[in-house]
Design goal:
The structure is a single chain. By secondary structure, the protein is α+β, with helices and mostly antiparallel strands. The chain has a single domain, classed as 2-Layer Sandwich (Beta Polymerase, domain 2). The protein contains six helices and five strands, in the order αββααβββααα. The radius of gyration is 16 Å and the shape is globular. The relative contact order is 0.15.
C-alpha cells in the first residue's frame, strides 16, 4: 500500500514539470499540439501530492499508442484509457509516483478544457485553492493508505469547482450586444 502524502507547495514543481515536458516533447515530436502543467502542483501555493501532472494534447492519439515503448524507456507505465474514454494515461515512479501524463487528441476539447479551466480557476481564486488544499490534507490523514477513498472524498468538491470554472470560462467569453 502507498502512503498518501499531501505537502506544502514546492517551488521546485514547475521546474520538474519543465524538465519532464522536454523529454515528452522529444517522444511526440511531430504529433504534439500542446503540453501543459496541470493538477495541484501547477497552482502556486496549493498543497498537493508531489506528483507532476502533465496534459499532453496530440494530433493523433493512435500515433501515441505506437510510442508506448519510448515512454516506458523514460520510466512510464502505459495504463491505456484508465476509465476515461479517449484518454491515454501514463504514470511514472511505481509506488513512489512522480509524474502522470493525461494525453488527449486535440479534438477532445471537453476533457482538455476541463483540466485547463480547473487549474486556471484555482489560480484565479486562491481561497478556493486553499480550501481544496485543506480538504486534500484532511483526506490524506483520514485515508493514508486508500487512494480510492481519498479520491472519492475530493470528488464532490472537484466536480463543483469544475462546473464553476467552466461557467466562468464561458461567461468571460460571452459577447453582449
Amino acid at each position: 500500500m502507498r502512503n498518501i502524502t499531501v505537502e506544502e507547495y514546492s517551488p521546485e514543481w514547475p521546474e520538474l514539470y519543465r524538465k519532464e515536458a522536454e523529454k515528452v516533447k522529444e517522444i511526440v515530436r511531430g504529433n504534439e499540439v500542446a503540453i501543459y502543467h496541470i493538477g495541484s502542483t501547477s497552482v502556486v501555493g496549493l498543497k498537493a501530492k508531489p506528483v507532476i501532472d502533465i496534459l499532453l494534447v496530440v494530433r493523433e492519439i493512435q500515433l501515441l499508442d505506437q510510442q508506448t515503448a519510448l515512454f516506458e524507456r523514460l520510466g512510464y507505465e502505459a495504463m491505456g484509457e484508465l476509465g476515461l474514454p479517449q484518454r491515454r494515461f501514463f504514470r511514472k515512479g511505481g509506488d513512489h509516483r512522480t509524474h502522470h501524463i493525461h494525453a488527449y487528441q486535440f479534438d477532445n476539447s471537453q476533457e482538455i478544457l476541463r483540466h485547463l479551466c480547473f487549474r486556471d480557476y484555482l489560480v484565479a481564486h486562491p481561497t478556493v485553492a486553499q480550501e481544496y488544499g485543506q480538504l486534500k490534507q484532511a483526506l490524506a490523514l483520514k485515508f493514508p493508505n486508500d487512494i480510492e477513498q481519498y479520491g472519492d472524498g475530493k470528488d464532490a468538491f472537484v466536480k463543483r469547482i469544475e462546473a464553476e470554472a467552466l461557467m466562468d470560462f464561458w461567461q468571460q467569453r460571452a459577447i453582449t450586444h
